[in-house]
Every structure is written in C-alpha cells, then in structure tokens.
Design brief:
Blueprint: H1 3-6, E1 9-10, E2 13-14, H2 21-52, H3 58-63, H4 69-89, H5 93-114, H6 118-138, H7 145-149
Antiparallel strand pairs: 1-2
Amino acid sequence: MDLAEATNTTPGGRLIIPALGGLYRNLHEGAETLLRVVAGLALVTHGAVKIVNPFGAIEMVEGLGFYPGAFWSPLLAATEFFGGILIALGLLTRPAAVAATIVLLVTVWFHWITMGQGYGGAEKSILWAAIFIFFAIRGGNRHSVDARLGRQF
C-alpha cells in the first residue's frame, strides 16, 4: 500500500468521501479491462461485415483517396476484425490499438472534412480514437494475454 492508498488521497488530492478509496482501488483495473474488452468487441462487430466480404469496401476506400482499393479494403477489414479480437484479448494490444487509432482518425477526417459534417459527424470516431489511443499508450493491464505471456510490445 502506498501513501495515497493509506491516506485515501488520489493524485488530484484527498477524496471527498474517503471511504470510497478502497472501492476505487478495487474497481480500477476491472473498469479498464471492461473498457478494453468492450471497445475491442465493438470493433470486431464493426469489422465482421467487412471480413465476410473483404473487397466490399474498395469503392469507399478509393473514394477517400486510398489506392489501390483492392489492397486497402482487405487491410481495413482485417484491422477492424482481427485487431478488435486482439484488443479484446489484450494480445499485442499496443500495435492493434495503434492500427485501430489510424482507422478511426481516417473516419474523423471523412466525416468532419470530406462529408462536411463537422464535429457532430465525427464525434463517435473521435471518442473511439481516444479510447484506442489510451490502449496504444497503456497496453493491456494484468488482465490481458500480454500480461499472462509476460511480454508486451
């Protein structure tokens, strides 16, 4: 137990309700794991349609300026589907999260700039990109395959 735990403080200061300190400490990693698993599975769900037809997004990716579409469309499908699985499992978490972040930043550009929807159109992509940036920096926690293997990228 460190000093912050012993005194019921957080890096931002003392807790208003010190009795909640133990609850926050006990739920911290579980909440982070839940966010990683849910975000990864949501990405899998989004990529499932694409992985069934990996060349189905050729026109879309070429419309965004990514040529040849026959290369980028399957790469997009694999990044979303397999990258989501890796993130959910916490295996190669950082590289999978970096790849997901790149995909999401492209969708931010698409909705905000290409489609002219501004923040309102890009809002969900911004949120998803922020989540994946977090895991690109943080990696998987102790509830990940990376931790079980004793190796992280």
